[in-house]
Structures are given as C-alpha cells and as structure tokens.
Amino acid sequence: MQESNLFKDYTLQEVLDELDVIECLEVPGRRLMAGEMTQRQVELYTKLGVMAPASLQ
Questions:
Q1: Which of 18, 29, 48, 50 is least crowded, fewest Cβ atoms below 10 Å from its Cβ?
Q2: In-domain check, residue 15
Q3: Residue 48's CB: how many other CB atoms inside 10 A?
Q4: Out of the domains of life, which is the source (predicted)?
C-alpha cells in the first residue's frame, strides 16, 4: 500500500472492507465464480499489483 500511495486515500481497514464485499457465486456443475466487482475494487486490485479474481477454484 505504501508503494502505490494508497495510504494517502485509504486506511488499511477501508481497503480490506472494500475488497471483502466481493461475492462468491456457486453454480451447480460449474466452478466457483467471483461476482461482479465495482470499478473501485478493480482499481484497488490494480494499484496493489494483484490480479483481480475471475474464478475462485
């Protein structure tokens, strides 16, 4: 978070809370899938240098 200057806009708790609300969808006979993400969530993943989840299994 320091390298991407997230601390100037967010607290650690705010980042964790924002990423915590991503839903996990279970469709019978298919893989677990991450629900739709907000633009803010996608931006946080990008700034953290982490690939946003497409599926969870």
A1: 29
A2: yes
A3: 15
A4: Bacteria
The beta strands (E) that lie in 1-57 are given as 24-26, 32-34
The structural domain count of the chain equals 1
Separation of alpha carbons 22 and 33, rounded Å: 10
| Digit-coded pLDDT (tens) for 1-57 | 777 778 888 899 998 898 888 888 888 998 888 888 889 988 998 988 988 877 554
Please, what is the angle between helix 12-20 and helix 39-48, to 10°? Answer: 120
- CA gap 22, 7 in Å, rounded: 21
Structural domain including 44 reads: 6-48
Task: Write the burial class of residue 13 (CB in 10 Å: 0-12 exposed, 13-18 middle, 19+ buried).
Answer: exposed
